[in-house]
Fold this protein.
Amino acid sequence: MRTSVVGRGERLVWANRRPTLAGHIVGGTIMVVGLGVFASGTVDLVDGGANTVVLLIVGLVMSLVGAVTWRLTMTPRQIRVLDVFKAVTVTWIVIAVAGAVPYVLTGHFVHWDDALFESVSGFTTTGATVTPDIEAMSRGLLFWRSLSQWMGGMGVIVLVVAVLPTVGSGGMSLMQAEAPGPTGERLTPRVRQTARRLWGVYIGLTIIIGAAYAAAGMSLYDAVSHSFTTVSTGGFSPYQASIGHFESAAIEWLAIVSMFLAGGSFTLYYRALRKDVKPLFVSTEFRIYVLIVLGTTLWCFVTSGAGDGTSAGFRDSLFTMTSTITTTGYVTSDYGAWSQAAQALILVLLPIGAMAGSTAGGVKILRVMAVSSFAHREALKHLHPRLVRPVRVGRGILSDDVAGKVVGFLLLALVIFGGGAFLIAATGPDMITSFSASATSIGNVGPGLGELDHTGDFLVIPREGRAIAMLQMLLGRLEIYPVILALSIVTLRLPRPGKRRETLHH
Amino acid sequence: MHVIIVGAGEVGRFLAQRLGLEGNDIVIVEQNVAVAASIGEELDVQVVVGSATVPSTLAAAGVDRADLLAGVTQNDEVNFIASLLAKDRGVPQTVARIQTEELRGPAGKTLRDAMKADLIIDPDADTADEIMELARASGADEVYRMSDGDLVLVGAVISKSSALAGSTLAEVGQSYEPNWRFLFGALTRDGETVIPRGDQRLEAGDHVRVLTTRSALNEILELLGAKHRRAKRVMVLGGGAVGSRVAERFCEDGCEVVLVEQDIDRAKHLSEKLPYVTVVNGDIEDVDLLNEESITRMDHVIAATGDDAANVLACAFAATEKRTFTVAVLHRLALLPLVRQFGIDASVSPRTASANAVLRHVRGGTASVATFLESDIEVDEFEIEADSVADGARVADLHLPHSIVLGAVTREGQAGEIVRGNTTLHAGDNVVVFARPESIPALLKAFTA
């Protein structure tokens, strides 16, 4: 770039930019996260809390560092698949660490890994907590806790793609790697428009839910905090007793409807808003989603009192099941005292999740449908060895390679679930606690069973076990492949003949 | 009549032969020199070599004095353009073969209107229709609806157990006096087809065509000793245009359908298009595959690949189990005498299916036409015009040639009635007749004013 010497200043800056996708995206997201921390500081300032200064300064510094990184890097001309997965994984690890900084610097957590756990649990919209007394936190910090879930819900990278102009062609693969659910459907020909529309629906839903909460009797602060964690299916609440704190039937019904909406496909919502309502209602996945919520509710309502269990009211059953299926993790009732039949159902539902394209975690109903169709085909192949049959998902058809990926995904999810449960159990907790901790982490739900039920928090699990849970949350939120592929870069980068050329290239 | 036929494929050849027999002048337009040469030797027609999409070729074929142009190539676009050009040059009637399913539906309406063709045919769809008729009246090997479905022409083989075997037609007729509900219109024995007279004796193994009313169809099939059962399990061999349609319709009828397709990409396409059909990829000549899919346990086996020999072999294999009703699609008529020897129940040809539609159109006054694969006898339906010779006359007084039998008559608001010698005809009556093509002009003379 020798010409830049005689060029204008702007070209000089351009010439100095490093072409690195991961750096570029990390810069952008750190900037956004910094703004979020700053906003939390402002909330604390209004509230007169104790953490105002720390939050404001941390927010400012992060935004600046992010902005500078953003300016100094650029999207490379050619983006490889691995670059995308690397960028997404690195970004998520960096924002998890960045999100933990306010928790550490305010002195709220003594151990850095507790702060990291809270941050990971926030961004991955899990909602599991290691805060012994939530209400003792400053409201600014609690606001940051809710805000981190809101950012993580639709995906920080999707937001970056939507807002910042320089990502361009790599955007779709970035979004597919980050946005929850396997629907990489373009709503518009341009990626940025698609990202904007998704975030538009997301923000719109947040505002509606927030307004409804306020109308139902929450204070403005509570309404905003809860709307953030409802629409992102996160489940953090500034109160120890979660939604149960309000003791209001209206708020609980509202939360049920809102959680249910957040568990639906945002792409279908966007279409419905465009007067194209049909795809939503004819969607087989949507119908199954409705049926699962109603069916499991009925099961819990009927069986919760069986054996030694205490019976639950219909609203409590519906609330708990909606909260579990949408992976939100709000609690209102002591479901830990329900019958084994009801609790077993909760354990099964924890890692499943709601619709693809929603903010819910877990493997998603769509994938379960695909794998069922796949299994059905394989069974039929015993009868008709040369059968030709596509894997169907509702009205759609998955090509065989996509179906293979989905089956692989479910298999990996099973390994991570089982392996994680085993490792957590190895650190001490009992079996039910360990299995539900593993399920709730990979499904990004929050609460679990055993010692993790409505009153418990992750403090009952030793530090080593929590580290495993943290990894599971990240794997669950990024839907496994990006993380595993990014890790595989490490092996791919081992020295070999082609390596030298690559270093010369930079 | 001067007729131009575009395309010397199966349909084109068959049409040329049929229309030629009725004394029309036929010109065939064919692009392929070798095919054109062979057809010139085979049929008494004029052949113009060239593409029918070029006006000069059509001019050479005498488009200016043509009464009918039939575009029956495999290529929709050629048929379309030929029909359009012919209409432009003032040809009164055009027929176009359109195979693209979408163009035959509502989406293709604008195009069809623009084309101005008087008749649009699709041999594959017509063949599928014929197969379904056969399957629904299983036991018969030919089924044609006449007079809007009031009358049915059914072909079947007289079995050994039939009560009719051994008696003459006159005896059969006597035992069903006074109201005949069926009429034997044609009889095939040892490869020869005749229009039977009263002294004709029926034997087991005779292939007969019986005209009957729709309600008496099952009764007549039982009388002939032809099997009759409802299909539950169906195997369709070959997922082409005919096979896929047939599979889809059987599925709609609630049958369990296995479809065998050789081409893996086509099989994939079909498996996506037909969710309730079990699609299997393989060669239909592969006996292992047929056994794997338990072909002999099927109620129906429809062989509809493009390969006649494979169709016959697969059907013959399936027919080893007597339960199975087999239908083979045949493209070459020469194979027909062989088919029944193999125990195959019925065969259908795409060429006759569509040719019937064209003949029906050409005749104008005819409502429906059926032709038989192995003979030149055909079944037509005519309306009697006012003040014609037949108006008000008794059938016996018409003195029609022996190569014509009047089968049944339908009148406005009445069920079909089998024609007797003393039946009086009136203007407006629809009459179904069995006839050889060369005697059709004599019939038209009696029926038109």
Observations:
- The interface with chain A takes residues 258, 261, 264, 267-268, 270-272, 275, 278-282, 289, 292-293 of chain B (CB under 8 Å).
- The longest strand of chain B covers residues 182-189.
- The CA atoms of residues 61 and 116 of chain B lie 20 Å apart.
